[in-house]
């Protein structure tokens, strides 16, 4: 019989156990994070072309290979293998959780990455399947992680939730939103239609859902997700904010309620704090942000080149040119709220609803003109 073409075979997933396997993972990280995305340049080993971190020493590393090369990796640090490190405790605000839940019932999952050739496939689902098999076996109560704003819809749809009193500013990656999954809260997972419901063990009345969970998650109000908020409530909130724009127009000017709903699909409203690094120069994310309230500063290195207030748009250059971020954007005032618009949804509108997309782009063009008048 003829041999199967490797291109028709799904990547296989393994745990990196040997020193060489782990080194191969670090090399793949370098290719994706440093070479492709321009991150972690200050901490990566450029001579050996690897990106390894102290957390790796006590972590479980998994990788997927297409038979010839690594095409995806992930890391998880389990409290049952070793105490979670100080950086993770601070970044994910774990101290208050550790007061209520044993460390060996927590995992911090990080460094998920997939090669360009596998993006859009089911590989990320299959990676999580491996991950959640471990979670079921060890009755893990809480899984922590984080993501950039443009990935929020993906992770919230999986069943993760926001919980932090403050989002994270990473020197290397920029602005991150802490997330937590409660794997045995099957009711919630079904409510959000998580694709992982079939992978998680349903323990029924014996499920380990921490009694303190509502209190621990009560601070996770920094993010309002279009996908998880009643439609009228969400649109009313956005309409009220964006129509207070200080510009003569706003992004949704002249659009009907139904048209606004379609533009807002997969969007998120995020509350930020002064000093937050919302957009990092060189980042490859291409979503746009509309300022709902408060103030942002656009900086070229250390020089402030523009100040954006309610109604303004930032990140439009990366979206329109499909290029990395050209400037840094910092939050200037506490309580600043921004609307993160889904890049994929807006591009889909351009293909499927060109008339609506034309109205939106006309408003965007006007906002760009006002910005040029202001900074010129």
Rg measurement, Å: 22 Å
The biggest beta sheet reads:
8 strands, mixed
Oligomer status: single chain
Structural class: alpha+beta
- The number of strands is 17
Shape: globular
- Total separate domains: 2
Textual characterization of the structure:
- The chain folds into 2 domains: 8-147 and 182-217, 3-Layer(aba) Sandwich (Aminopeptidase); 223-375, Jelly Rolls (Sandwich).
- The chain is globular and about 60 Å long.
- The chain is of the alpha+beta class and 376 residues long.
- The longest helix has 22 residues, at 354-375.
- It has helices at 19-36, 86-91, 95-98, 123-138, 152-158, 186-191, 213-217, 231-242, 257-263, 316-321, 343-352, 354-375; strands at residues 12-15, 60-65, 70-78, 106-114, 142-147, 161-162, 168-170, 174-181, 223-225, 268-272, 277-279, 288-293, 296-300, 303-308, 313-314, 328-331, 336-341.
Secondary structure elements and their pairing?
Layout: E1 12-15, H1 19-36, E2 60-65, E3 70-78, H2 86-91, H3 95-98, E4 106-114, H4 123-138, E5 142-147, H5 152-158, E6 161-162, E7 168-170, E8 174-181, H6 186-191, H7 213-217, E9 223-225, H8 231-242, H9 257-263, E10 268-272, E11 277-279, E12 288-293, E13 296-300, E14 303-308, E15 313-314, H10 316-321, E16 328-331, E17 336-341, H11 343-352, H12 354-375
Parallel strand pairs: 4-5
Antiparallel strand pairs: 1-2, 2-3, 3-4, 5-8, 6-8, 7-8, 9-10, 10-17, 11-16, 12-15, 12-17, 13-14, 13-16
């Amino acid at each position: 019989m003829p041999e199967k073409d490797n291109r028709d075979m799904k990547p296989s997933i393994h745990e990196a156990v040997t020193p060489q396997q782990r080194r191969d993972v670090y090399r793949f990280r370098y290719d994706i994070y440093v070479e492709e995305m321009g991150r972690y340049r200050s901490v990566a080993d450029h001579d050996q072309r690897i990106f390894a971190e102290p957390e790796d020493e006590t972590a479980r590393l998994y990788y997927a290979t297409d038979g010839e090369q690594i095409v995806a990796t992930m890391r998880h640090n389990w409290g049952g293998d070793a105490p979670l490190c100080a950086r993770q405790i601070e970044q994910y605000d774990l101290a208050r959780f550790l007061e209520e839940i044993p460390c060996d019932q927590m995992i911090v999952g990080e460094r998920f990455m997939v090669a360009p050739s596998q993006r859009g496939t089911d590989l990320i689902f299959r990676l999580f399947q491996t991950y959640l098999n471990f979670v079921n076996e060890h009755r893990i109560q809480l899984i922590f992680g984080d993501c950039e704003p443009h990935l929020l819809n993906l992770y919230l749809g999986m069943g993760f939730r926001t919980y932090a009193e403050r989002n994270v500013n990473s020197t290397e990656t920029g602005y991150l939103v802490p997330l937590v999954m409660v794997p045995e809260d099957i009711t919630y997972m079904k409510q959000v239609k998580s694709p992982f419901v079939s992978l998680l063990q349903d323990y029924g009345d014996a499920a380990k859902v921490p009694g303190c969970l509502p209190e621990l998650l009560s601070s996770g109000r920094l993010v309002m997700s279009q996908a998880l908020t009643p439609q009228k409530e969400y649109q009313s909130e956005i309409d009220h904010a964006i129509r207070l724009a200080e510009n003569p127009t706003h992004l949704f000017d002249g659009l009907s309620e139904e048209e606004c709903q379609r533009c807002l699909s997969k969007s998120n409203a995020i509350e930020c704090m002064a000093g937050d690094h919302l957009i990092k120069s060189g980042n490859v994310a291409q979503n746009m942000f509309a300022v709902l309230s408060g103030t942002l500063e656009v900086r070229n290195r250390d020089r402030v080149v523009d100040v954006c207030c309610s109604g303004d748009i930032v990140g439009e250059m990366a979206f329109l040119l499909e290029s990395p971020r050209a400037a840094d954007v910092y939050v200037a005032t506490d309580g600043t709220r921004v609307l993160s618009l889904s890049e994929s949804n807006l591009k889909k509108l351009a293909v499927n609803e060109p008339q609506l997309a034309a109205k939106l782009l006309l408003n965007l063009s006007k906002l760009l003109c006002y910005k040029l008048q202001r900074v010129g």
